[in-house]
């Protein structure tokens, strides 16, 4: 009876928006068929300092490419803002208004005020740690149209907030989890002088640590990586998230590779659509979980949605990638021949063979395909070895210096 009630609800309600984090055009190319919107940052005032490929000068072009694919463009301006960076705020907000972004994701009042003055929509970042409906209403009175809620809320708390505010609600559904409250971590700044709140996190929580007691005893049973939180994965609970009134599902991953973005966005799109169509089944959930586990992950948990996570919320024995399927770099594109739909490829790390699944990737390029044709000096090859330069048939546009990975 509960399932039937849910599906009646779904057919009468609108689907939640699916928002993916990207860092460049390759990431956009990987997920645009499945996402409704993308969020990204420029080379200033963002919490992913390594994601600098979208400069202020390139923002116009990037946003136009997002909109050409019929997606919404959300610009994250969510780092801590010191007095000497207020000029950067003005520059970023002006560039965002000129480029026509659909919203700015912010939490610092200086950014919010400047964005509203420039006529931009505002989404409140999870950095604001909004944890109740009155806080959500406060930001609504300041012009915010959406709140990205604190990650430390349970599903029941999210439902109550949704029921008591008119502002849109967004929550994270997949990706890396910070071990600190809503990402407000000082560990990186304390150990290496690189502030996570300014986008320079060195991830010391992923290091090996020892737990020492007052009596000198070292705890060994907890594993090596005491602070390394598992990734969030809510693919098994999409119906409950929709029933809670969440308007937008957010996937963390601006620093993940495009192949990751493609798999994750496709799985969550299929899950959302399956709920709408009334055929979200345990068998499909298991298939999605297997696909999600095939790309970069630190193990999966449900975060705080169903209570405060215990030891099972941490990946004690793995510091980084728990996936068994790890892609390997094999070579680089030397040239592209559009008329022949082929590329000259130099194999630097490994060989490739007919039938191999490969990814060709660059800052603009993302192409996943099977190897269908290999040629050397006009002769067909079944396999090309490390060190060789060969012709490779390609299914789309590639560019010089794009990298080739085998899966």
Topology:
Layout (H helix, E strand, L loop, with lengths): L1 H11 L4 E5 L3 H7 L5 E4 L18 H10 L3 E5 L9 H14 L3 E4 L2 H9 L4 E3 L8 H9 L2 E5 L6 H9 L4 E8 L11 H6 L18 E2 L5 E2 L11 E3 L4 H6 L4 E4 L6 H20 L4 H12 L6 E2 L26 E10 L4 E6 L4 E2 L3 E5 L4 E5 L3 E3 L2 E2 L2 E2 L4 E5 L9 E4 L1
Parallel strand pairs: 1-2, 1-11, 2-3, 3-4, 4-5, 5-6, 6-7, 7-11, 10-12
Antiparallel strand pairs: 7-10, 8-9, 13-14, 13-22, 14-21, 15-20, 16-17, 16-22, 18-19, 18-21
Helix pairs in contact: 2-10, 3-4, 4-5, 10-11
Index terms:
alpha/beta; TIM Barrel; Elongation Factor Tu (Ef-tu), domain 3; 11 helices; globular; disordered N terminus
Task: Report what the structure shows.
The protein has 2 domains: 312 residues, Aldolase class I (TIM Barrel), CATH 3.20.20; 79 residues, Translation factors (Elongation Factor Tu (Ef-tu), domain 3). The protein contains 11 helices and 22 strands. The strands form 4 sheets. The protein has an 8-stranded parallel beta barrel, surrounded by 5 helices. Strands 17-16-22-13-14-21-18-19 form an 8-stranded antiparallel sheet. Strand 5, helix 6 and strand 6 form a beta-alpha-beta unit. The chain has 407 residues and is of the alpha/beta class. Helix 2 runs parallel beside helix 10 and helix 3 packs parallel to helix 4. It is globular, with a radius of gyration of 23 Å. Helices cover 28% and strands 22% of the residues.
Our estimate of the beta-strand percent is 15-25%
Q: Could you name the CATH homologous superfamily of the largest domain?
A: Aldolase class I
Count the domains: 2
Shape: globular
Number of helices: 11
Spans where pLDDT lies below 50 across 5 or more residues: 1-12
Average predicted confidence as pLDDT: 89
